[in-house]
Amino acid sequence: MPRLHRIRKDIFVLRPRGNEWANANINIIRAGNPTLIDCGSTFDGNVSYIRKVLKSLGINTLDKIIISHSHIDHCQNAGKLAEEFGAEVIAHKNAIPILKHSKAGFEAFEYWELVEEAFPRIFHSRYNWLYRRLILMGYNFFVNRRGKRLNEVTTIYEGEIIDLGNIKLEVFFTPGHSDDSICLLEKRNRVLFTGDMIPWTPYIHTSIEDFRNSILKILAYSNQYDVKTMVRGHQRPQEAQSEKHNYQIFLRDMDIAEKRILTLLKQKQPLTSKGMLPYIFRRTHFAHQLIYRILMRTQQFWIAKYLQDLEEKKLIKSIKEGNKIEYYLA
Question: Which of 87, 226, 257, 271 would disulfide-bridge 275, Cβ 3.0–4.6 Å?
């Protein structure tokens, strides 16, 4: 199966050699200032491999590396590539503490909250300290030591234009999957790079409202500029009309999930989030049902965000007793 896809004359998508769910695409812009959008993880593509692919396209240097968001499958190679090529690394301001590998280490990552939400029994046990230590040791061995510290990261903002010479990219901020997610619009070729906004898992600093607003923004930009191709962070680039349909379905499904919570509470209350889980989810993506539900248990995280959203709207209220939280209609 070919891994390098040319989607426009000077725009390429390098798909990972390994697991496509665990490793992200590397987008290559062959412009006056050669640029990568995301640079993958050290588990899939090392510097020599990426250099070899670039050379096959006639690219001998890199000017910029733009990070769509600071999850390791998208940015772990940034430090090594920046050192190798002298490239400028560019990201949203919220990504900088993680990209620079602050001394807080794993504490800087949002994954603590994800793991705690998905596996509450582990983190409410007497061995909480041991589980934390084991996860931190695993992170330092498999992730931290394989990456390289970044000393300089350039901050980009909503509406900013990144000029690559013959190609220009417009930035817009789309929190949801993470609180530092950005999308990049290439107007001339009508290509939109969407990172992981197709939507995957929300993290602790984001909300359902973030997701709604960001999806609506993506749809508006796509329509305004007649986008033809949407480039995901994972899998093949998508024809824009079908991808927009996926976003519209997801908007609908988020509304359905919240309506189901309210209906359940009308029929029987109080309920815990665990008690609601079997009834509220409808997913547009196979990965949610097969991979995320079984391995990462992100359904628990989604329902926590839905409940948070409904509480902020004052439609429900919660009462905590010990480690148990029960929900009622407001």
Answer: 271
